[in-house]
């Protein structure tokens, strides 16, 4: 039984989103960057997608189910899908959380713990603001939280990230720092920042006994997939419902 993983970052109402504009991020860590437009989805399309999954009997997976699939050979329910959200920007609480809760869906958020603000911020439409620990606490009936580094979600070039240019010891220490956060309840599950990694990074995850790691490569996963190289499908703002159906249909 194969399954698909969907990857979301940011959600905006159609009236608030301008694809041609720059979208700065606002995080606790002293780091400046912009979120590319393809990593946004409109609220209207997101709700349409979740409604489609619900009306067509899709099962939203927990990370424990995925671990049991790879570790114990457990079967997955029909029409299984894993919903993931990277970086924990405000829109997952403002928009995704109530929709997921309405449909009784389960989701995973990959947290950059060094990005979490100390206090709640007013929702901003013009930039991508990271949530706070208290925000995440309020969503844990829908979301489970996994490792997306503590302070290594940094691109060093177009083709490399800080993970790839740092020593194994530095990466291992950062993984531990992320896992120290009280709400990271899946300390052996990881998502590669930007989907960038090298063989040394994979080896470090193995040595730290990580069970699952997610890339940004499109496609489905099955029993033959490497659990430290699982595929995820980015859902961009331009996607229509027919294209979405093709991604989730196996």
UniProtKB/TrEMBL annotation:
GO biological process: carbohydrate metabolic process
Superkingdom as given in the UniProt entry: Bacteria
NodB homology domain segment(s): 79-250
GO-annotated molecular function: hydrolase activity, acting on carbon-nitrogen (but not peptide) bonds
Organism: Niallia circulans
Taxonomic lineage of the native organism: Bacteria, Bacillati, Bacillota, Bacilli, Bacillales
InterPro entries: Glyco_hydro/deAcase_b/a-brl, NODB_dom, Polysacch_Deacetylase
Record key words, sorted: Signal
Family matches, as Pfam families: Polysacc_deac_1
Protein's UniProt name: Chitin deacetylase
